[in-house]
Write the structure tokens for this entry.
Amino acid sequence: MQLYLPIAELPLNLFLLLGMGGSIGFISGLFGVGGGFLLTPLLIFVGVPAPVAVATSAAHIAASSVTGALTYWRRNALDLKLGTVLTVGGLLGTLAGVFFFNQMRRLGHLDLVITLAYVTLLMSVGCLMFVESIGAMLKRRAGKVQPMRKAGEHVWYEKLPLTMRFPRSKMSTSVIPLAVLGLLIGFIGTVLGIGGGFLVVPALIYFFRVPTSIVVGTSLFQILVTMIVATLLHAVVSQAVDVLLALTLVVGGVIGAQFGTRTGQALKGEQFRLLLAMLILIVGIRFALDLVAAPADRFSINATELER
Amino acid sequence: MRRCLPLVLMLLALTGPGRSEELVLALSTREVAITSTYTGAEVTVFGHIERDGRTIARTGEYDIVAQVQGPSGEVVLHRKGRFGFIWLTENRRRYPKIPLYFSVLSAKPLASVVDEDGRQRLKLGLEHFLPAPTPDTEERDEFGFRNALLRLRREEGALTENDKGVTMIRPNLFTARIVLPAKAPTGLYLVNISILSEGVPLRTAQAGFVVRKVGFDAFVANAARNDSVTYGLFTVLMAVLLGWVANVVFRKD
């Protein structure tokens, strides 16, 4: 059944959209990430104009993170204080991101910025996580106890001024590195149409050693707030949010996310990180190939815009 | 009296023997509505070539060429180039005001209707959807952007040439079938019909139709543009509510 999308200005199959939203929602619920880093390129692939794909993904991410965050909230696995600090930084980053996005759209550099940023991010985060999780698995098999953080041990960036205690995450650290992390992720997330969850999760685990169970819920909370603001700003500034496309993706997405959450509960920490790393690497390799392989056609129509 | 002479001659030319044919057009619709189920559309032009006793006698049959021009807009064309081991956009060309839909319909291949010279003069054929290349732009088009634009727009269905698009029902009665793709831009479409006989242009006539979003799709498009804050709030509210509903529905306890 074909459904005409009023802002994307093309008809797409309703069941294709529900299925796409559903499978990305499943992955999102499974890993506690937004899933936009898969959804945006998929939408572009089926013909949705890039600005609409980026802006509408934000609404889908908001919906799937509501579902996930509520589940974690009920299990008391959500550090609201930590989430709020990340969110404040994230909102500032989002603001910068939306204006940057709109500027790039006008200049026509968006595809290059998106592709280069994707490849760099996906490949580096994917590789780091892959190596780390394999290492952790080998150590566990060898029967070694994983090194834990000693009480009172702090890395240099945690010793910066403005110290704050986060009892639920069992840490005390300077607010500055957390806010900077939030800012970077808000900016990247908005420009690329991704929630940034796959950056928040490893960053909190590796840089701040927050317990994994708390990390996923907290990152979903931060993604949720950031993506609500991103959707609003995209709607006002670039006017590229397609409400009908969002509705079909969201309906599929929230159902998929619930099944993903259940599947994810059966996974061990390292298995979880290894699978996520592999997923990120696959997407990264696909984009890298796009850059390296000789194009079948050197020419491409990048944008067609009706005169208003 | 001498001043009136040209006027008298002109009147004679209009009413005298050897008058040209009249062309009467009718369209199957004046408005193509884009609704939620829109996947493309067809508009048919009906045309009648009127002759009377004073019309010049023709030995050959009539040839019809219909050119349909959609609303104008901007198309940006990119050309990739190799930088070390990666491929990046090297050049881009902006065509700020070209028709986003253009089609040429006839009953037989255009080349057998009128010769190259005539096509140039009458601006018949797909390549005329772009402004004629001046020596200046010609020189700057070293990368073949013009040909690439024609080729890509043709692949996208935004440029079509159909030598079976016109059907002659009677020697002086025809229909032209205009096919609009799923991604047809909204706006005014102009239909320009020329009658030729043995390569000689006889008459042209124009008609037009509008493609526009109606009902729900028009409402959404308007809201997104004119009421963007409410529109954004609504989208967010919808996403959050659906997320909450799913969480409640699938709750285990």
Notes: Chain B touches chain A through 65 residues (CB under 8 Å).
